[in-house]
Structure to design on (607 residues):
């Protein structure tokens, strides 16, 4: 617990950089947004413009297996520093925080960052161009962002939207730059990317923060299990920042600024208020108790707590307290995304949340492998999780390819839940990419191809073109996932219809929509196949007109924003073939071919 407290405090002094997911046409593992943040973009090697791969982590060619990377666990001594060590570290951190705050307050106007362009991800490092939203007005931009909720059916659409929101974008006319940053951070938080929301908040200098940005900052730091990250912003918070959470965050920051007496007074005052739940005060008191001058034994009890809020989650993680599983079960799925990335959460808890986080686009294949690897030697790992980790290791290190594939199959089939099944394919993407294609393995081609494409390994998947049977699921995924494919005939596509066992033939419908959006079937064949399936691609809506217009003008950022708005829903049952067609076609026309291919392939895989 004390180690968790220390980590939370230390996080005040460093920005958390997250790696980015690969989007199609590469041989490097997928990672989290923003792509290639630490390295310049590699030159594209084929006709279509390519997104960036995570540098330095290439997928090995098929051959002798290598061990799964295992994150070494800290020693017991590292996990439990002594009181003297903890006090010394906290004192040092408090001094550095005070110096950092003084520097921020003394920053001359000439040294402050502009509000005309805001975002941590520049175009030279893989972000969108500053003018990628076109000349839309501030009111329209704000409306689009606010009307996009946190549930986006496509993992790849979510990844693209996160990349856009983190990019250094020009502030739309009529919007305050800090408020524009706040709207983007709030959407990142709704998507499940608390890390991204914090980075967006940090892109604005504290003296320029508006009340809207400060409120979003509080939500973001709490969701990322780093409430102490708010402390440098407290001096810029005016009297308008009222409410229980602001009172408690001031108490927490007072405690870690060496003002233990003031912190205790604020906690006691909050406890006497009738409109605040006891658990919220207790969690804040628990954190204040870790400060140098505010030690007080506090026990957290969840018996009478019926709801998990962002505040309760973030403060519990910071204090090293795990909320009950029953509360997670009743909470929005965003909590699973935040939980999977919370460094203070127990490893087993993070792994449990990893399936949903990966399917949502918040956790990468490489991150999942690291999590599983770290649990292998963790004495707190239960037998079920240990067995699953052993399967993952077998999928990588077994000398016999049949053993590796059987291990992957066991992971793919461990649950009937659609999110778990898809995340299992993301988890095994690297292992699947290491399997050499052969006719003897054609029965496994479907799952191997879906696994590789789920993490963007389309070049690796392309080696299976001659192995995947015509009309199979693997063939259908490759038909939309690979770059440079020539047009297909109606008879080629029709072969897949006979093998499609999805409900109401939705995979077939999405295949036709994806191929049509990519321009890989003629208009006549599209209409003929659509008629066979009982679907139609005609009809207009305000959204379809807007996304088509944005694409025709080359505003790829606006297209990406409209893609996120158009792909909202709990799962793929919320999508129609017509919507998918417009999404894929708009991305292709706007120059985002890789994203178009990956979304089309995901639709066929997950329908």
């Amino acid at each position: 617990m004390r180690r968790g407290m220390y980590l939370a405090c230390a996080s005040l002094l460093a920005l958390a950089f997250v790696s980015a997911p690969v989007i199609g046409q590469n041989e490097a593992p997928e990672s989290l947004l923003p792509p290639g943040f630490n390295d310049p973009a590699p030159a594209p090697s084929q006709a279509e413009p390519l997104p960036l791969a995570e540098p330095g982590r290439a997928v090995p060619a098929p051959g002798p297996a290598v061990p799964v990377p295992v994150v070494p666990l800290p020693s017991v001594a590292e996990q439990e520093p002594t009181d003297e060590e903890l006090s010394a570290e906290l004192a040092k951190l408090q001094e550095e925080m005070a110096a950092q705050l003084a520097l921020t307050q003394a920053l001359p106007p000439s040294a402050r960052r502009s509000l005309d362009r805001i975002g941590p991800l520049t175009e030279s490092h893989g972000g969108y161009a500053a003018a990628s939203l076109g000349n839309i007005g501030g009111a329209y931009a704000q409306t689009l962002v606010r009307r996009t909720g946190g549930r986006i059916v496509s993992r790849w659409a979510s990844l693209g939207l996160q990349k856009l929101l983190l990019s250094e974008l020009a502030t739309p006319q009529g919007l305050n730059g800090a408020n524009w940053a706040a709207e983007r951070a709030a959407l990142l938080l709704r998507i499940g990317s608390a890390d991204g929301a914090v980075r967006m908040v940090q892109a604005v200098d504290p003296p320029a923060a508006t009340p809207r940005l400060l409120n979003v900052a509080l939500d973001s730091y709490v969701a990322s299990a780093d409430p102490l990250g708010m402390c440098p912003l407290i001096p810029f918070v005016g009297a308008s920042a009222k409410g229980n959470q602001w009172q408690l965050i001031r108490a927490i920051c007072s405690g870690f600024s060496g003002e233990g007496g003031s912190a205790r007074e604020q906690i006691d005052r909050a406890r006497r208020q009738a409109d605040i739940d006891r658990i919220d005060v207790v969690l804040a008191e628990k954190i204040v108790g870790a400060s140098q001058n505010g030690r007080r034994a506090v026990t957290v009890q969840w018996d009478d707590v019926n709801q998990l809020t962002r505040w309760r989650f973030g403060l519990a993680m910071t204090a090293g307290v795990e909320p009950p599983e029953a509360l997670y079960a009743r909470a929005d799925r965003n909590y699973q995304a935040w939980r999977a990335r919370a460094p203070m959460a127990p490893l087993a808890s993070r792994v449990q949340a990893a399936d949903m986080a990966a399917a949502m686009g918040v956790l990468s294949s490489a991150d999942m492998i690291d999590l599983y690897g770290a649990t292998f030697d963790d004495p707190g790992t239960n037998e079920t999780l240990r067995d699953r980790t052993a399967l993952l290791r077998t999928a990588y290190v077994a000398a016999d390819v049949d053993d590796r594939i059987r291990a992957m199959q066991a992971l793919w089939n461990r649950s009937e839940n659609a999110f778990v099944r898809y995340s299992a394919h993301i988890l095994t993407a690297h292992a699947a990419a290491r399997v050499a294609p052969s006719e003897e393995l054609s029965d496994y081609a479907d799952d191997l191809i879906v696994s590789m494409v789920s993490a963007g390994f389309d070049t690796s998947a392309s080696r299976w073109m001659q192995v995947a049977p015509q009309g199979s699921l693997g063939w259908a995924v490759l038909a939309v996932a690979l770059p440079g494919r020539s047009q297909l005939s109606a008879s080629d596509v029709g072969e897949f219809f006979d093998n499609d066992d999805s409900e109401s033939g939705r995979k077939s419908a999405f295949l036709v929509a994806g191929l049509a959006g990519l321009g890989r079937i003629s208009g006549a064949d599209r209409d003929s196949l659509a008629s066979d399936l009982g679907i139609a691609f005609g009809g207009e809506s305000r959204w379809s007109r807007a996304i088509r217009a944005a694409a025709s003008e080359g505003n790829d950022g606006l297209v990406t924003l409209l893609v996120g708005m158009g792909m909202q829903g709990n799962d793929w049952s919320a999508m129609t073939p017509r919507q998918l067609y417009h999404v894929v076609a708009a991305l292709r026309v706007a120059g985002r071919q890789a994203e178009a291919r990956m979304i089309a392939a995901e639709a066929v895989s997950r329908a």
Summary: DSSP finds 30 helices and two strands in the chain.
